[in-house]
């Protein structure tokens, strides 16, 4: 696989991480529970850290790293904002949105790991996939524990 292809995959995952960072931060702002706010802020920080790590890999492979989320992520956040304005938001609804975002992130990481990537990239993405799966599982468990 060429460096150009590796960079493209990494930049897509940077966008995914940035989407997660922004999404978790936005949901943390809206959360009613202090404990949930803290959990979502921690998830946002983890996504930010993942993006920084991916950006370093892009630089190592001679590319220019993304520094923002995807258009789809921005549109989704915009839709969530509009929906909240009309229906209000509960912690349960916020957690549903977070889980939906983590479902998308899991799919993108799994797709990337099916590619013939350099070993350093495979190892990083494999480790980050475990983090995304952990986030997903935690958010799902929280969602299931909060009444709608």
UniProtKB/TrEMBL annotation:
SUPFAM superfamilies: Ferritin-like. This is DUF2383 domain-containing protein. NCBIfam families: PA2169 family four-helix-bundle protein. Gene3D superfamilies: 1.20.1260.10. It comes from the Bacteria. Residues 5-115 form the DUF2383 domain. InterPro entries: CHP02284, DUF2383, Ferritin-like, Ferritin-like_SF, UCP029477. Pfam families: DUF2383.
């Amino acid at each position: 696989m060429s460096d150009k292809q590796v960079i493209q995959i990494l930049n897509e995952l940077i966008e995914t991480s940035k989407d997660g960072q922004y999404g978790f931060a936005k949901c943390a702002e809206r959360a009613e529970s202090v404990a949930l706010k803290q959990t979502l802020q921690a998830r946002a920080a983890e996504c930010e850290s993942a993006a920084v790590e991916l950006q370093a890999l892009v630089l190592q492979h001679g590319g220019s790293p993304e520094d923002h989320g995807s258009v789809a992520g921005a549109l989704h956040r915009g839709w969530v904002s509009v929906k909240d304005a009309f229906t209000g938001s509960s912690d349960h609804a916020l957690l549903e949105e977070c889980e939906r975002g983590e479902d998308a992130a899991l799919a993108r990481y799994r797709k990337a790991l099916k590619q013939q990537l350099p070993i350093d990239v495979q190892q990083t993405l494999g480790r980050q996939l475990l983090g995304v799966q952990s986030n997903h599982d935690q958010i799902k468990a929280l969602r299931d524990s909060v009444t709608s």
